[in-house]
Amino acid sequence: MKKRTSYTTTKMSVQILTYAALILFLLISILPIYWMWQASLAPRFDLIRDPFSFPGRLTFENLQQAWLTGRMGDYFFNSVFVAIVRVSGVLFLSCLAGYAFGKLKFAFRDIIFRFMLFGMMIPISAMIIPIYYNISRMGLINNRFGIILPYFGLSMPFATFMMRSFFRDLPTELMDASRVDGCNEFSTFFRVMLPLVMPAVTSLLVFEFMWSWNDFFLPMMIIYRDSIRTLPLGLMYFSGKYTANYSLLAAGVTICSLPIIVIYTIFQRKFVEGLTSGAVKG
């Protein structure tokens, strides 16, 4: 009886310590987000007086001023445009490539796939000079497509690798059955195989949107005109204009972070499912 009681006590203590550690890490994780949001809603002088206290009153003036005066609205539109075109293109191409490498048989398939994976090993900083010269020759400097087109190539190795692994897990018998029913290769892909890997597509969508939205290095090299800057790039110049006004800075960062939170919240279930489960459940 004593041993059983001791075991129960030890188990409960371990659980308490585990939950305490998890709660501590949760508080550490959300503290910067909390401070950023409360700073964006606090009057400027309240923030200067005590940066970490809850403001006496909440105001949306900082967000409004950041949106209008700081031109965050223009930057927001540019980021949305770049993200939609980039994510749509990468998803479409990677699904086709993943299906081809995972299910179709053609000459040098594995060699081509391995060669494509080399793109995952080369950092963008090592390719930025040739990318810049190619974009310049195409006349896409200070053009939104100048920061979209390179990522069709830069994002494809990881995206193709991810989609190929999911397509490979699908039963080949599904393809044979669809062909017997009269489907051609494209009908088999779009009507039969693609719906089964939608959790993976959703996970890739969240990844690509996050990377596109937070991208700073390539836009900094390609975009010089203020009217077509994306949010992260515009935020850098925004901080230079309002260095002393931390409420406006916090408002700008809040505007920049909200779309990622919204996208992840919308696709959270499919995103987790795509990361933790296979393409077909037995």
Fold topology:
Elements: H1 2-41, H2 44-49, H3 61-68, H4 72-103, H5 109-117, H6 124-137, H7 145-154, H8 156-168, H9 172-180, H10 185-193, H11 198-214, H12 217-222, H13 231-241, H14 246-266, H15 268-276
Helix pairs in contact: 1-14, 3-14, 4-7, 4-8, 4-11, 4-13, 9-10, 11-14, 11-15, 13-14
Structure description:
- With 282 residues, this protein is an all-alpha fold.
- It has one domain: MetI-like (MetI-like fold).
- It is built from 15 helices and no strands.
Q: What is the CA–CA distance across the termini?
A: 43 Å
CATH superfamily: MetI-like
Tally of structural domains:
1
User: What pattern of helices and strands is seen along the backbone?
Assistant: HHHHHHHHHHHHHHH
Name given to the CATH architecture? Orthogonal Bundle
What is the count of DSSP helices, taking H or I runs of 4+ residues? Answer: 15
Rg (CA only):
24 Å
Q: State the shape.
A: globular
Which percent bin holds the helix content? over 70%
How much of the polypeptide forms β-strand, as a percent range?
under 5%
Secondary structure tally: strands: 0
Largest sheet: none
The pLDDT mean sits at 83
Structural class: mainly alpha
Low-confidence stretches: 278-282
CATH fold node name: MetI-like fold
